[in-house]
């Protein structure tokens, strides 16, 4: 049941003879237009955050773990607390561009990320995935990266939808430290 204020905030969509406009309601998010237009996106390896982060110390770059071919880093704009990205060091855009060794380590890091986040925060599940190409939603399409987003029952609420606000229970630096402490030492490669 909707309230008067909810009705007032809805925008009427003309009928398209029983098609999608009659089935779906619309949520307008004009702030995403800059993202769609690609404003402020990196233009190459020289300004690619995934190429620059490995040059930073772990705390500054929010790096949780470093491998031989791949590193784990917290997402600076997380969908949920503990949102990690598993990123190859090489600046390649597509999963098919990875070597067998990179694919293997990416898989190992994904499994380890899931185990560590479960151990530290009791995540109930995960969204694991990568968006290949800007048309598929990749924010940084030129440098492959895989998301590991922890999920908990009831973690979706009105705050991000209505309040345009994410509620995170811990600052990123503290989350990074906690995850790094629990990452198996055998998989860490010393910084260059």
UniProtKB/TrEMBL annotation:
- CDD domains under this entry? FHIT
User: Which positions does UniProt annotate for substrate binding?
Assistant: 75, 147
Motif extent (Histidine triad motif) = 143-147
Active-site residue list: 145 (tele-amp-histidine intermediate)
Q: Does the keyword Nucleotide-binding apply?
A: yes
Q: Which UniProt keywords apply?
A: Nucleotide-binding
Cite the HIT domain residue spans from the record: 49-158
- GO MF terms held by the record: catalytic activity; nucleotide binding
Question: One Pfam match, by short name?
Answer: HIT
Q: What is this protein called?
A: Histidine triad (HIT) protein
Tell me the organism.
Geodermatophilus obscurus (strain ATCC 25078 / DSM 43160 / JCM 3152 / CCUG 61914 / KCC A-0152 / KCTC 9177 / NBRC 13315 / NRRL B-3577 / G-20)
């Amino acid at each position: 049941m909707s309230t008067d204020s909810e009705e007032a905030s809805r925008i009427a969509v003309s009928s398209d003879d029983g098609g999608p406009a009659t089935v779906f309601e619309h949520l307008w998010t004009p702030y995403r237009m800059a993202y769609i237009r690609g404003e402020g996106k990196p233009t190459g390896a020289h300004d690619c955050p995934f190429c620059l982060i490995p040059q930073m110390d772990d705390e500054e770059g929010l790096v949780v773990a470093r491998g031989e071919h791949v590193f784990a880093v917290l997402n600076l704009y997380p969908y949920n607390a503990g949102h990690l990205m598993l990123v190859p060091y090489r600046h390649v855009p597509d999963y098919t561009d990875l070597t067998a060794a990179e694919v293997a380590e990416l898989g190992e890091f994904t499994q380890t990320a899931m185990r560590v986040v479960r151990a530290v925060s009791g995540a109930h599940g995960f969204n694991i995935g990568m968006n290949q190409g800007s048309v598929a939603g990749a924010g940084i399409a030129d440098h492959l990266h895989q998301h590991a987003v922890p999920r908990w029952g009831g973690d979706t609420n009105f705050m991000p939808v209505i309040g345009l606000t994410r509620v995170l229970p811990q600052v990123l630096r503290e989350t990074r430290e906690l995850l790094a402490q629990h990452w198996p030492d055998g998989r860490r490669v010393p910084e260059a």
